[in-house]
Amino acid sequence: MAELTTQPTIVVTDSPAPADLALISDELDHFNIEASGTADRRPLAVLVKDPETGAVLGGLTGRTSLGLLFVDLFHLPSTLRGQGLGSEILRQAEEEGRRRGCRSAVLYTITFQAPGFYQRHGWQVFGEIPCDPPGTSRVFMTKDLTST
């Protein structure tokens, strides 16, 4: 980066350009690679698709990096819940994390979302932070991936 001759501008936005997000992500990844000597960050998605149209109906997104599986987003439409599909999606994400060398997994959910679902699959709460609406919390969870 060239030396700035004036003070940089700070902009707060709810619509950042994809290129701006990519620059921040790529620069942080570059820093982490230099600091750790490991270049293993990879996106991960386990998608549920309509067999006729190929359209994505739901699934899980996340990433792996430095021995951790991060579950970022997980959603199934209500019509697909209760059939074991969510359990299989989570199992496949965890298995892919293991294949990529991850020792642990982390995520956060909200008390009105699915902490019980994750706990039934061996995830443990390591923290909670109150959020809105009043009476709810963000629930931070982890799972040891070294044992199945």
From TrEMBL:
The keyword Nuclease does not apply. It holds the Pfam family Acetyltransf_1. Signal peptide: none annotated. The keyword NADP does not apply. SUPFAM superfamilies: Acyl-CoA N-acyltransferases (Nat) (SSF55729). Transmembrane segments: none annotated. One of its GO terms (molecular function) is acyltransferase activity, transferring groups other than amino-acyl groups. PROSITE patterns: GNAT. Gene3D superfamilies: 3.40.630.30. Keywords: Transferase. Residues 8-146 form the N-acetyltransferase domain. This is GNAT superfamily N-acetyltransferase. The lineage of its organism: Bacteria, Bacillati, Actinomycetota, Actinomycetes, Kitasatosporales.
